[in-house]
Design a protein that fits this description.
single chain; 72 residues; mainly beta; four-stranded antiparallel beta sheet; 0% helix; 56% strand
């Protein structure tokens, strides 16, 4: 899990922090010779501003190529 905790310092009291919790899963695949990590997460903001419905749910999909390094 990699939550995006946000703080709006200019907001009224009680509506400053967004704190999501959730679950995710990922797997490593090979595209040709290049390994790629593909993962997804679904998060619900347990603490969120009252006026923003978009701050309650978060979906994250990631596609990360793994570039091998050379050892010296």
């Amino acid at each position: 899990m990699t939550p995006n905790v946000t703080v709006n310092w200019k907001a009224e009291d009680g509506n400053k922090v967004t704190f999501p919790i959730g679950l995710g899963a990922g797997r490593l695949f090979n595209f040709g010779k290049l390994p790629v990590r593909i993962s997804g997460e679904l998060q619900y903001s347990a603490i969120h501003p009252d006026d923003l419905i978009s701050s309650r749910w978060n979906v994250r999909l990631s596609f990360i190529p793994v570039i091998p390094t050379f050892m010296f």
